[in-house]
Amino acid sequence: MTLPRPHRFDLLMGFLGLTSGLLLWSFDLYTTGGRIFDQDWAPLIPLAVMASAEALRRTMPQTALVVGTLAIVADQFTNGNLVTVLMFTDVVYAAVVYGKPASARRVPYTTGLITVAVTVGFLVWWQNAIALVVGVLTGMISFMPAMTGAVVRNHREAADAARLRAEQTALLAEMDRTQAVVAERARMARELHDMVANHLSAIAIHSTAAMSIDEPATTRQALTVIRENSVAGLSEMRRLIGLLRDSSGDAEPAAAPTLAGLDALVEQARANARPSGLDLVLEDSRESTAGLPAPVELAAYRIVQESLTNALKHAAPGEVRVVLAREKGALTVEVTSPSGERPGPTAPGSGAGLVGMRERVDLLGGAFEAGPVTDREGRKQWRVRAELPMDAKDEERA
């Protein structure tokens, strides 16, 4: 086992203590006289031992305290050296400040009991006031340094705990900030995808048709649809920019879309999907359109919008049905479209739309399903179904 190297500052203190003690000894300056070992060289032995303990005050505080205690006791049997006593007080202080927690807690109690025991013992022995002076001196060189060390250690531990709490608070704040940024980016991605994908899909399909079919009427009709979707997409992009600038006050954001605009959305999708052989049907069985939370309306609108976009990209010719219903405290949105091969041009998909729809439903605590199904007549269809709780809080905003 390798012993730790003494700290340079402790080595310096031990050296200065030894030098100072030797200086006092050279001038025959002692703390008392007439002791058992009254030879001139006798105080040098406790002095040297105490200087060694001083060098270990930080790296081996418990060992330094034991060695220092033996040295101070031995010093009482010689004429004594003041520097030995002063170094002992520092060894006691260091044992509390740098020692293990359990040992640091015991030292003040132990030195306090020793102070009381010495005072009582000398009172019984001498039966005069000098015993009180001895007790005070004992407390000054043992109990007071230990209490000072305890106060310093408590302050250091409190400072460390405060610094740790500050670091943890900063870490939690950074985690919250990161999560908020990620959530905001995900929200922006959903909005951007839902607002623009429908128009871009129509543009891609009709531009492909215009290039594939060499008929002036078809080309003119395709260009008309392309222009309408370009203008509508540009308007949606401006609305998104307005939303992004809302916090800075640069522009007033437009109102978020609601189910009141669902008829116009379906009508626009019907015009875009007509060349692909799709017939769009809206079935709204809600008795009342009032009382829907804004987040639920927005989520339902975006789910229908994205489902119609996917139908325009992938659905086979046939009927695309959009069904809205209120049941058991939830708004149900269901969109079914024919599944199979489709003639004519198609637009590629990335799967981001399904992810966005699922995220919207999850934020409101609802249920979402998307996948192939078979209708009563045995035809394959693709169905998107979402249940949005009516008591959803305003967590999802445009």
Question: How would you describe this protein?
Answer:
Helix content is 62%, strand content 11%. The protein is α+β, with helices and mostly antiparallel strands. The protein has 2 domains: 163 residues, no CATH class; 142 residues, Histidine kinase-like ATPase, C-terminal domain (Heat Shock Protein 90), CATH 3.30.565.10. The chain has a 5-stranded mixed sheet with strand order 1-2-3-5-4, with helices on one face. Helix 2 runs parallel beside helix 4 and helix 9 packs antiparallel against helix 10. The C terminus is likely disordered.
Short description, anyone?
The protein is of the alpha+beta class and 398 residues long. 62% of the residues lie in helices and 11% in strands.
Mind sketching the topology for me?
Blueprint: H1 8-26, H2 44-55, H3 61-75, H4 82-98, H5 101-126, H6 130-212, H7 216-244, H8 262-273, E1 278-284, H9 294-314, E2 318-327, E3 330-338, H10 352-363, E4 367-374, E5 380-389
Parallel strand pairs: 1-2
Antiparallel strand pairs: 2-3, 3-5, 4-5
Q: Give unreliable regions as ranges.
A: 249-253, 394-398
**SSE succession:** HHHHHHHHEHEEHEE
Mean pLDDT: 84
- Alpha-carbon distance between the two ends: 67 Å
| Number of helical stretches of at least 4 residues | 10
Query: Measured on Cα atoms, how large is the radius of gyration?
Result: 43 Å
Form type: rod-shaped
Task: Order the strands across the largest sheet as they lie in space.
Answer: 1-2-3-5-4
Strand content: 5-15%
Tally of separate domains = 2
Number of strands: 5
**How is the main sheet built?**
5 strands, mixed
